[in-house]
Structures are given as C-alpha cells and as structure tokens.
Fold each of these.
Amino acid sequence: MFENLSERLSGVFDKLTKQGALSDDDVKTALREVRVALLEADVSLPVARDFIKAVQEKATGQAVTKSITPGQQVVKIVHDELQHVLTGDADPGALKIDNPPAPILMVGLQGSGKTTTTAKLAKRLKEREGKRVLMASLDTNRPAAMEQLAILGGQIGVDTLPIVPGEDPVQIARRAKTQAGLGGYDVYMLDTAGRLHIDQELIAQAAAVRDVANPRETLLVVDGLTGQDAVNVAQEFDDKIGVTGVVLTRMDGDGRGGAALSMRAITGKPIRFVGLGEKMDAIETFEPERIAGRILG
Ligand code: GDP
C-alpha cells in the first residue's frame, strides 16, 4: 500500500547510509527529498512540513552528524517520527462492545466500502471473539444495498435484521436495538445510508440514528484511494456526527498512502482498520509500528 513512498524513501536512505560522514547540509538535502516523497504520496502539506521540521530538529547537530553511523541515526529518527504521526489507540482493533447488545454505527459515503466493511468486521467479531452479531442495513433509498448486506450475512453466517419495506432508518435502528436485546446478541451493527457527497440529509439521518442507538463506536469508512479527500471527508463527518475511528479501505490498491499518514494528524481520530481487498477476510487492524516498518521497507 505504500510501495511508491517506500521506494522513494529507501533511495534517499541508501544514499545517506552509504555516505559515511554527514554534514548538516547533507541531512537537509536528504530531508528535502523526503518531503517531496511525502507530498507525492499525497500527505497533506502541513503534516509533511511538521514532520520534516521534527526530524530536522532531531537529526542535525553534533549528536547525529558526529556519530559513528550518522546515516542510520537519521533513518531511525525518521522511523520514530513516522510512528509518532501514525500513533492512535494502543489497540486499534479492540472495539468497545461491553454491555451487550453494543451498537456500532457505520457511516461513510456511498461506494466507500461501508457495507463490505460492516460484514468484514462482523465476521471478525464472530470468529475472533465469539460474539453474536446482528447486522442491519438502514439504506432505505437503495434496496439493493439492503439486499447486499443480507447476502454477505448469509455468506459469513451472521444474522441480518429482516427487511421490512416502508420503514425509515430511525425505525429500523429501533427495531435492530429491540431485536438485538431480545435475541441475546452481543453486538448490533447499523449500516447507514451512504451518498455520493456529504449533504444535509445524509448528516441529519446519521445524526438521528446516532441519537436513537447511542453507539459505542461510530466507525467512518473512507476510500483510501481518494487521498486527501479521504481526510477532508473524515474531518467533516467527525465535525458533524462525531466518529470514534476510521476504516481506510482499498489499501490493497496502488494508492499513494498519504491519507493514512495525514488522517491522525489532521482529524485527531485514529485509523482502526484497513481494508485490503474484496474478500471477507481482507481487513487488518492498523498498527503504527508495522505500517512505519512497511513504509521504510
Ligand atoms: P458502500 O456503498 O460504501 O457500502 O460500498 P460497498 O461495500 O458496496 O463496496 C463497494 C465496492 O468496493 C465493492 O465492490 C467492494 O467489494 C469493494 N471494496 C470494499 N472494500 C474494499 C477494499 O478494501 N479493497 C478493495 N479492493 N475493494 C473493496
């Protein structure tokens, strides 16, 4: 998911580590190249700027340039700073699902991968934590989306709330809550309607559902391929509805990965999971240590 960035950085670092002695100017030149690589990966400008500034402060001066392996020192500082930028919760994959039935609200734009992610997470909760999960589609505008969730539920062996034509999203959310309580479910997941753009109606609907369900987690699903747009969408959803975390999908594609690096720094919200394909197992928790490692090759 970070192939291009990773390649660019390893080029810069190879030069640095081969060089032996380093001057502050050498470090500055290298960091300028790192900055360009970050921007090309679609990391937002303020985030890239702060990143370079932090590294520069730590990597110039006697301690580094006069050390025995200055190049490696600089690489380590970049690594630590990457991890710092990415750091979210200690355990991003741990969903708050105590007090059953725990509601999880899934929000996001149409096509972001929301329904797929809902099913992937339900499968994960079922298989890894032995939870009984109920999924409900609230997308009353698109019967096909409701059907899609039911089909995925059938595939992964997770129950879905029966579809009752004519109900509005708030009514469905209420019915899901009642059903989850009566049926002894640990978790119920509400897959809200998506739209192509954030508009008043989308926000009003998600907010109304939120108020009825009082979710333990509100997860925003965004398409990782959309780069900085993903970060803007996250910011707006968080301002208007409040989210507890982000799921970045399509990180299996050849996107530039910058959204992942800017997300936490700009929105203050952690990336909790990344989607890595269409299959129901193609989801992973977002672990800063591992991601930083992957970027640095
Ligand atoms: P929704 O409109 O937000 O509910 O989006 P869907 O869940 O219907 O997903 C739209 C398309 O994206 C489907 O074809 C999914 O299989 C695909 N998709 C979802 N997540 C991922 C992912 O992480 N990687 C890839 N490659 N495709 C994904």
Note: The longest helix spans residues 24-40.
Amino acid sequence: GIGAAGAVTAGCVGMVLVQRRRVLASLPQQIRRAVSLGRLTMAYQPLVRLSDRRMVGVEALARLTDDRGRPIPPDIFIAIAEEKGFIGVVTRKVISLTLTQMRGRLTGDEAFDVHINFAVTDLLDDRLLTYLDGEVSRLGISPARVVIELTERSTAEHDRLREAVETLRRRGYKFFIDDFGTGYSNLAYLARLPINGIKMDKMFTKAIGKAAASSAIVDTICATARSLNVELVAEGVEEPEQAARILELFPRAVGQGWLFGKPVPAEHL
Ligand code: C2E
Ligand code: MG
Ligand code: MG
Ligand code: MG
C-alpha cells in the first residue's frame, strides 16, 4: 500500500506542479500588467525600395519587457495576448504610439508609409477601426499612408474577413498579407481579397541561392505578386545577393532586413 514515503513523494510532486503552474500563469499576467502600465514601446524597421535604396516606409514592431526588464519576444507576447483576449488593447497602444511617433514623416511631402500588424480579431473589431480613424484624423494623417498587415495564416477562409478588408480599403487604408508563403491560403480566395501587397516570409529570402526547390518558391511568389498586380516586400534581407535576386525577379520590390537596418526606436531611425 502507500506508506509514509509514498505520501511524501506525492506531496512533493503536488508542490512542484503547483509551483510550475504559478510560474506559467504569471507570464500572461506580467504581459497584461506591462501593457497596462505603459511599458509597451515601439521599434521601427526601414522598408527600402530595392531599385534606388530609398526608405519608403517602416514596419512598426511592438516591444515589451517583463518585470525584471528583460525583453519578451514579440512572437510570444502577441500570441499570449491573442489567446487571452487582450490583443485589442495591445493594438490600440501600437496605433497610438506609432501614429504619434511617425507623424512627422507621415504628414511630410515624401512618400512614406507605416505598416502596422493586426490580429484577425482586430480587423473584425469595429470599435478598433473607429479608434484608428479617430487617431488618423486627429493627427492629420492620410489613411493611404497606413498599411495594415495580416498574416497569411490568419486569412484562412473567414466569412467576415473580406467584408472587413473592404471596409478598411473603403476608408482609404492599405492592406498587405504578411508572412506570405507560410499559410495554406487558397490563391483563388486571396485573389478576391482587395489586397495592396504581399510580404514574402523571410524563410524564402533565406533560401535564395540555397536549395533549388525552396529557391524556386521565391520565383513563384514574385510571379504571384505580378499576376495579382500587387506590391511586394521581401522580409529578412540580410545579404546583397538576396536583394539583387529579388530586384531581378520583381523590379518594384521593397526589401526589409538587416542589410538595410534592424528595428530601432523612432529617434534612431
Ligand atoms: P513580422 O510582422 O513578420 O515582422 C518581421 C519580423 O522579422 C520582426 O521580428 C523583425 O525584427 C524580423 N526581421 C526583420 N529583418 C530581419 C532579418 O534580416 N533577419 C531576421 N532573422 N529577422 C528579421 P519581431 O520584431 O521579433 O516580430 C515578430 C513577429 O511578432 C512579427 O513578425 C509579428 O507577427 C509580431 N508582431 C510584432 N509586433 C506586433 C504588433 O504590434 N502587433 C501584432 N499583432 N503583431 C506583432
Ligand atoms: Mg508584419
Ligand atoms: Mg512578416
Ligand atoms: Mg515574419
């Protein structure tokens, strides 16, 4: 039967489980708290037209630190905010900080766009869109300078998605499919969405000059952008050879990556 030793062991296992549960539960709490305390900051990464190396915009990327000031990777805190249902709060802060910090460039004479990442629930949230409209008009920014990015994975056929994208476009914003090539979207479906551009995921940029099979996908993605008649941004451009190849395949392409600049605070842009 279960002796004293067994009971002690069971007790220890129980305590370990409780402790582990407490540690795991604290990350979403830390994230929620950090956001509400205003510890969310923004980094901006240049978008560079490959033909003349001119900066034609930036992508706004959220940054957050934990209670000890250590950075939490965006992939992680965004996923948790989505799962726990407070991504809308994050996106509001992102909109507010980004439009305020980029206002000078967004209201200047030179062509300059800002890309903001949305979760699919953001896109379907009327109040968030109303908030965006309010901020854009309060700051005197043209909606045409604001590009909403949505990852291809989250475009999986959703009844209301097309309607939401159409609303966005009607109000003058631009719409890009992010991480293109990593989802399983049906091209016929994508072709019916009023998209302005696609962002080729960095895994394909990395493949340039490497394995023939994955390198061929780069040609296919460029051909897709051409046939949909949309803009193309290549993510993760680290090597000059990658930029050269993409320029060859798509002369109007824009690049984003360490070759041109890492994400930095507004004042370092
Ligand atoms: P993403 O939207 O695809 O953003 C591009 C990611 O690639 C960024 O990672 C950027 O730092 C990274 N990157 C850019 N150039 C290079 C390069 O040359 N080499 C390599 N290895 N990486 C490069 P980051 O900032 O860690 O963000 C990760 C993801 O988190 C984003 O991927 C986006 O999906 C999400 N995210 C970030 N900020 C926000 C936000 O404000 N809202 C939402 N919903 N998602 C966000
Ligand atoms: Mg993005
Ligand atoms: Mg991306
Ligand atoms: Mg990506």
Note: The CA atoms of residues 222 and 249 lie 6 Å apart.
